[in-house]
Amino acid sequence: QAQLVESGGGLVQPGGSLRLSCGVSGIIFSIYNMGWYRQAPGKQRELVATITNRGSTTYADSVKGRFTISRDNAKNTVYLQMDSLKPEDTAVYYCNAPGSRAAIFTSWGQGTQVTVSS
Question: Whose CA, among 20, 56, 95, 103, lies 20 to 30 Å from 110?
Answer without folding.
Answer: 56
